[in-house]
């Protein structure tokens, strides 16, 4: 499932709307941002809060409603299998934990928002220029398509601003070649996807444009 924020909201460490459940120093999800969800906990009967949404990749919890006000709505998610080619010269494209094209480290795959009041950084998955990935789900918003890489819980994107950084392979010959090269290639075991360690940066830090 993928949701879109319609009212700014901060991550919680538990399925709760209270201020006490906010994750310290966790960034605010602004209006229009997307996030992926592993599971939804239904609202209690008669409650104006919830359902509560457990975000993918250990990011904590958000909710659809708080005191009756809507904070997030579910997005239409397309499922299938599509090949995409990275076209971001010199820097490649780093896997994200959620459908976003933000550049800060905290959105990169392997970074925890501190569900246990601690920020954790792991190896960063980076796909080089011209690498082909297979997507098993995708969602589009405001002219950008976000794709989940098959075999992972991470996301890539087709565009940042006016610049395209990944394109869908539509040519039949190219698609067949991509299938021969390894249909359903998993990022963590790919020979072409390299891992680079990084240090967790503050929420306001700006990192290299990948």
What would a concise description of this structure say?
The protein is mainly beta and 210 residues long. It is built from one helix and 19 strands. The strands form six sheets. The protein has a five-stranded antiparallel β-sheet with strand order 6-5-4-1-9, with no helix packed on it. The chain has a five-stranded antiparallel β-sheet with strand order 15-14-13-10-18, with no helix packed on it.
Describe this structure in words.
- The structure is a single chain.
- The protein is mainly β and 210 residues long.
- The strands form six sheets. It has a five-stranded antiparallel beta sheet with strand order 6-5-4-1-9, with no helix packed on it.
- Helices cover 5% and strands 36% of the residues.
- The protein is built from one helix and 19 strands.
- The chain is elongated, with a radius of gyration of 18 Å.
- The chain has one helix spanning 172-182; strands at 2-5, 9-10, 28-29, 34-41, 52-55, 61-63, 65-66, 69-70, 72-74, 78-86, 93-94, 123-127, 132-141, 144-149, 155-157, 159-160, 163-164, 166-168, 194-197.
Describe the secondary-structure layout:
Elements: E1 2-5, E2 9-10, E3 28-29, E4 34-41, E5 52-55, E6 61-63, E7 65-66, E8 69-70, E9 72-74, E10 78-86, E11 93-94, E12 123-127, E13 132-141, E14 144-149, E15 155-157, E16 159-160, E17 163-164, E18 166-168, H1 172-182, E19 194-197
Antiparallel strand pairs: 1-4, 1-9, 2-3, 4-5, 5-6, 7-8, 10-13, 10-18, 11-12, 12-19, 13-14, 14-15, 16-17
List keywords for this structure.
1 helix, 19 strands, 5-stranded antiparallel β-sheet, mainly beta, 210 residues, elongated, 5% helix
């Amino acid at each position: 499932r993928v949701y879109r924020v319609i009212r700014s909201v901060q991550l919680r460490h538990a399925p709760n709307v209270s201020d006490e459940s906010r994750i310290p120093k966790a960034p605010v999800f602004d209006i229009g941002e997307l996030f992926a969800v592993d599971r939804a906990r239904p609202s209690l009967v008669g409650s104006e809060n919830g359902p509560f949404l457990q975000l993918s990749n250990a990011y904590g919890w958000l909710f659809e409603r708080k005191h009756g006000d809507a904070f997030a709505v579910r997005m239409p998610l397309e499922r299938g299998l599509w090949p995409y080619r990275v076209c971001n010269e010199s820097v490649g494209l780093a896997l994200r934990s959620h459908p976003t094209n933000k550049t800060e480290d905290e959105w990169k795959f392997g970074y925890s928002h501190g569900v246990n009041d601690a920020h954790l950084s792991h190896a960063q998955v980076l796909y080089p220029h011209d690498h082909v990935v297979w997507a098993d789900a995708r969602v589009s918003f405001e002219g950008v398509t976000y794709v989940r890489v098959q075999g992972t819980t991470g996301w890539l994107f087709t565009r940042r601003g006016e610049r395209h950084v990944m394109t869908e392979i539509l040519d039949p010959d190219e698609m067949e070649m991509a299938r021969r090269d390894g249909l359903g290639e998993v990022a963590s075991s790919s020979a072409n996807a390299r891992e680079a360690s990084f240090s967790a940066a503050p929420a306001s830090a700006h990192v290299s444009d990948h």
